[in-house]
């Protein structure tokens, strides 16, 4: 039986054990979107499912995904570029490679939660596209040695 | 030619008057009201959607243009092009929402016994105003760009809020049987 109190505990658990340790909202969004199966659209998290239930884990992940997305969708472009720059700074890969790969394969199109459609989803995708163009033109914004370029997320 | 000019003048007067009226109404309106209205309408039309203020606020925020102009001026045209497409997409969505809202109103009308002429006139006038605002917003985007469409976008939202609140008020006095009948009809047509 799914209930609000258990869902709240599952969300708190997810935030405390996992999301809190991810350095930025953009990175949290990428992580949460990656817990969703491309084929079924269902979220999965073994630890959370073991502690609560599969359905509760799905709901907690979807709720957090929507919350993080809403937060990012509401920021100005300058902050959005800062978020993406922060994500690039913290990724283990070469930021230049990530930008090229994102421009080629556009994986950011899969970052929006199911509930977000239409113009809201297009707005997010457009912001990523423009931010990538800004960062491509000015590598100083995500340079790991230069942390003063834009406000860090 | 004279007829065309007269029509243009009427459209301009309606738009300016509508924007001024709605701007005044917005100052005194509560931000919680649309959500409550939406909940009331969704109780009988589960998949009914209304436009969200956050989207128009984001896509027409001129601070984004200022940022791009300062940081990456070569991307200015890209930003304007993308935002123009987004505003047009938002306007298309609004036309869909408006049609949905009117379809719901027709279902309510058929079930209601005590139709008020004043309420029906208000709904018709707001519907017309919305159509004019949507057309005017399209024109503003084409002529002056997406960031100039902000005020008219918010006026469109305000008109939507008024229309949905008026329609929601016609649902409130209906008894549970009639509401269930509307819900069933809505499920069939949507």
Word description of this protein:
The complex is a heterodimer of chains A (153) and B (190). By secondary structure, chain A is mainly alpha-helical. Chain A has seven helices and no strands. Chain A has helices at residues 4-17, 25-34, 46-51, 54-73, 77-90, 95-105, 118-137. Chain A is globular and about 50 Å long. With 190 residues, chain B is an all-alpha fold. Chain B has helices at residues 2-28, 33-42, 53-59, 62-71, 76-111, 117-144, 150-171, 176-189. Chain B is globular and about 60 Å long. Classes of the chains: A mainly alpha (153), B mainly alpha (190). At the A-B interface, α5 and α7 of A face α3, α4 and α5 of B.
Helix content of chain A: 55-70%
Report Rg of chain B. 19 Å
Provide mean pLDDT of chain A, rounded.
Answer: 91
How many β-strand stretches of chain B?
0
Tally of helical runs of chain B: 8
Global Rg of chain A: 16 Å
Counting copies of identical and different chains, the oligomeric state is heterodimer
Low-confidence stretches of chain A: none
Order of helices and strands of chain A: HHHHHHH
Q: State the separation between the terminal residues of chain B, measured CA to CA.
A: 42 Å
**Cα shape of chain A:** globular
Taking pLDDT < 50 over at least 5 consecutive residues as the criterion, the unreliable ranges of chain B are 27-32
Features:
heterodimer; A: 153 residues; mainly alpha; 7 helices; B: 190 residues; 8 helices; 81% helix; globular
């Amino acid at each position: 039986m799914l209930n609000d109190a258990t869902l709240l505990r599952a969300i708190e658990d997810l935030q405390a054990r996992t999301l809190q340790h991810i350095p930025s909202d953009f990175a949290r969004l990428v992580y949460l979107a990656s817990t969703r199966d491309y084929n079924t659209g269902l979220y999965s998290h073994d630890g959370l499912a073991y502690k609560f239930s599969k359905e509760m884990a799905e709901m907690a992940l979807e709720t957090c995904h929507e919350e993080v997305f809403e937060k990012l969708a509401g920021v100005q472009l300058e902050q959005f570029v800062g978020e993406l720059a922060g994500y690039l700074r913290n990724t283990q890969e070469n930021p230049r490679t990530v930008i090229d790969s994102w421009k080629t394969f556009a994986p950011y199109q899969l970052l929006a939660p199911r509930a977000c459609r239409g113009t809201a989803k297009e707005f997010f995708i457009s912001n990523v596209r423009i931010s990538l163009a800004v960062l491509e033109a000015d590598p100083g914004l995500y340079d790991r040695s230069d942390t003063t370029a834009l406000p860090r997320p | 030619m004279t007829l065309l000019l007269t029509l243009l003048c009427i459209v301009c007067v309606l738009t300016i008057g509508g924007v001024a009226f709605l701007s005044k109404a917005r100052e005194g309106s509560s931000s919680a009201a649309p959500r409550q209205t939406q909940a009331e309408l969704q109780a009988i039309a589960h998949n009914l959607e209304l436009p969200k203020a956050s989207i128009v606020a984001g896509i027409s925020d001129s601070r984004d243009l200022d940022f791009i102009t300062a940081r990456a001026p070569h991307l200015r045209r890209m930003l304007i092009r993308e935002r123009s497409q987004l505003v047009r997409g938002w306007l298309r969505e609004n036309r869909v929402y408006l049609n949905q809202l009117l379809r719901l109103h027709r279902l309510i009308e058929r079930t209601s016994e005590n139709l008020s002429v004043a309420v029906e006139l208000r709904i018709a006038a707001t519907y017309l105003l919305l159509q004019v605002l949507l057309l005017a917003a399209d024109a503003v985007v084409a002529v002056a760009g997406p960031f100039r469409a902000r005020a008219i976008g918010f006026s469109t939202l305000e008109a939507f809020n008024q229309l949905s609140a008026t329609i929601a008020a016609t649902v409130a006095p209906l008894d549970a049987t009639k509401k269930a009948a509307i819900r069933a009809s809505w499920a069939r047509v949507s």
